[in-house]
Structure formats: C-alpha cells, structure tokens
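Raw record, unedited: Putative peptidoglycan lipid II flippase
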Amino acid sequence: MAGLGRASATVAAGTMVSRVTGLIRNIVMTAAVGLIGSHAADAFGAANQMPNTVFTVISSGLLAGVIVPQIVKAVKTHDDRGSAFVSKLLTLGVVVLTIATALALLAAPVLVQIYAGQFSEEAQALTLSLAYWCLPQLFFYGLYALVGEVLNARRIFGPYAWSPIVNNVVSIAGFGVFIALYGLYEDATGWTPAMIALMGGTATLGVVVQAGILLLFWRRAGLHVRPDFRWRGIGLRHIGRLAGWTFLMVIVGQIAGAVQAYLVSAASGQDAANASLQQAWLLFMLPFSVIVLSLGTPYYTKLSEHVAEGRTEAVTADLGSLTRTVGIFMVGVLAAMIAAIVPLSRIFSKDAADAVAFSWVLAAFLVALLPLSFQFGVQRTFYALKDTRTPFFYTAVQAAVVIVTAITASALVKGGALDIAWLAVAIAFGQSIANLAQFALALTLLRRKIGALGLGPAFAAIARFVLAAIPAGAAGWGMFLLFGGTSGWSASDRFLGILGAALIGGTTLVVYAAILAAFRTPELAVAGRALRRFLPGR
C-alpha cells in the first residue's frame, strides 16, 4: 500500500501541475482569440478538437484497456520480462498511428464539414487551414499514450503525468507571442499564413515535445525494445478482439462528439458554441483529472494484478475503497465549483455577461461530475477483466443519448421553442444525462459479471458527503453575493476572477471539511493522509 500511495502522490502532483498550467494555457488562448461569439475561437476549437477527441478516447480506452493487462501478464510469464512482447506492440502501434494520421490529413476537408459544417465560409476556411497544422498531433498524442501506458504498466507513473506540463508551457509561450503581435483577434477573416502557423504550429509543437520527453525515461522501464514487425505469435488475434470492441467504442464516441460539434456550430459567432463547449468541458474535467486519475491510475495496475491472481474479492474491495476516497474529494470540489461558477467563468471571458453565459454551459456539465468520477473505477474494472465488449455496449447507449439530446436541442432552436443562446447549454446538459445513464448501466452490467459489488457502504458515505456539501456550498455562494454577485469585483476582471474563485471555493471547502470533522467522518482521515503526501518530505 505504501508503494501505491507514493505512486498516487506522484501522479496527483504531476497531474495537478499539468492541469494548472493547462488552465493558464486556456486562459491565454481565450485572451488571444476570445470565446463567446468568436469566429476565431470556434475555428481553432474545431480544428484542435479533431486530434484531441481521438486522444481522449484512445488514452482512456484503446491503449489502457488493452496494453496494461497484457504487459503485466507478459512481465510475469515471459523469460525476457516482456521486452519482445513490448517491441512488437510498439512497432504495431507506430505503424497504425502513422497510417491514421495520414488518412486524417487527407480527409481534413471532410472532417471540417463534420465538425464545423454550419460555420460561415470564412470560418470554415480558417478551420481547414488550422486543421492541417493540428492534425499531426494525432501521431504524437498516440505515441505519448502508447509509451506512457507501457511505463505505467511497469509502475513508472511520474513521467506520464508530468510531461504535459512542457506541452502547456510551449503553448503558453506561443499564444503569448500571438497576443503580443496581434492582440485579441476574434474575426475569421484577415488571418495571414504566419498567424495560422503560429496558432496551429504552437499547439502541435507542444504535443511533439510532450511525447518526446517520455522517451527519455524509457531505460527505467528495464525493457530492451527494437523495431519488430514479426507480429505473429504474440496473441495478436486475442489482442485484436479486445481492441476491436474498444475501437468501436472510439468510433461511437467520435460520432457523438461530431454530432454535438456540428449542431452547436450553428451558434458560432453569436453565442456560446464550439469553443465554449470545449473550454467548459476542460474546466469540468480539471478536478476529474487531478483527483480521479491520480488515484485511479495506480489502482488500475493493482486491479490488473488481482485479476491475474484470480482474487475477485480484492477487486471489489479496491473498487469500494476508490469510490469512497474519490467521493470525499469530488463532492467538496463540486460544491466549490458551483459556488464559484461565475468568477471561474470570468477567467475565460472578456466581460461579466459572457461569464454568465459560459457559466450556464459549465453548470450543465457539472450535473454529471460525480457519476463520471465513480464510473472510472467501474470501467477500469472491466478492462482489468479483459472485457472491452461490455464497455462498448454501455458507451454506445451513452452515445445514442448524446445524439438524441443534441438533435432535440437543435430542433427546439430551429422551431423557435429555444433561443439559440441556450443551444450549447442544452447540448451540455444532454451530455450529462447520457453520462448518468451510462453509469447506471455500467454498474448493473458489472454486478451481473462478477456478482455483488459491495458498494452500499461507499454510496452511503457519498450521501453523507453531499449532506455536508449543501451548507458548505451555500456559504460559498453567500460570499459570492457579498462580493457583489455578477456586478461585483469577482466578475469584473480575469485576474480578479481567479482571486474571487479561490476565496469562494476555499471557503466552501473549509466549511465542508469542518462539517465532516464535526461528525467524525472516517473517510476524512483517509483524505487527510492523501493530502499529506504532497507535503515536502512526504
């Protein structure tokens, strides 16, 4: 457990710094191209969404779901501790990524029609130009995930969590140069080749550096790897069956995301649209990335080991423990984000009115923050059991709900029943409904597969956390009103928004922790130990 704790702390620290620098990156980016009603922001968002969407799904499923269990098994059973096996897998991965990137570049005009089909002609042209710069990220994101999962399987968690920081630093510098040269530029017209190269090239250069840094840590894995195209004899057919379902899950997720992007593009240049959905999702995912991934990534390797040993009772015990530990953090963070939602939104917006518009999009996503957090452990349990078909099934259901709700929102706008200013909010809320349905279905299917999950005590603890979070959130919201609300100082400026969000969120968390302490909540001690690992010398 001590090793697991150190690994969690390493991943959490790296992920936290990465997400904080990523937050700064997005703030600088919105200062360069705007957000609400910005043609340029929506164009860059659509171009950059193509590789990012693929990476998000691949890193959470295709690679993690197939590679980690296979490498853990190879290390335990092969005489060379898995070196030959990893050589063949990496060679295959690089070949597939090269082909996929080439095809994406050839299909760039089609992809622009899919993701930005309702943009103006000028905005579509800008999106296409930026896409040619952004799409090569596919290869380097894939390489980063591929090498990173191999390192994770060898219990080397730090580099994978820390290397995105350099990516963010490169992007911050590049976007800063853009601001220095051109200022805030929201139009889709007037873009020179140098402007396009600076924005698109900056985004891609960061990913290239991020992937390259991982290779510096390869020796620590203790694997002797070389190109090996002899893929026969490594169980490729078995891996293909596992990856096949996950690949279908990728396709399903892509279709749902493309439908959302296409439909919300109708609001581009007027109200919250593509860029607003992306920035709200990234802010929504910030606590998920810092807390859930930092705790869950080491647990996943442990789950894989328990499955290999046939210890089902240990798997369910780990799942319950992870759910409670994640829950005590995420419930408090959810209350803090709701209380500080307007100052948080002001960080990305040019004025208070845009901040309020953006905050509604973020609020619609926050509805599903807890279910999405708890589902991480459930989905990784399926992967540890080498079952990728079941996750495909419940992800397909989720994607269907996403598509139906997005189409419904678009139809309501076209029919006049819903103002176009609320289109992005409705699509985001549909995403949350889909995530709720996905979590409920995933729990049911996992229970059928391995029997009782023993999550009753964990969910009872979550209910106690929520009861404590309600007055804590009210205290934070009261502070926001005391600061003047939407007309006050915390919504008047980007930097004051950061200060206001910190004060409001911090107050909410302090009250939340005090209530839990007053009722002697046992999970509070576990959370305290997790936090103390970040202290110097710990």
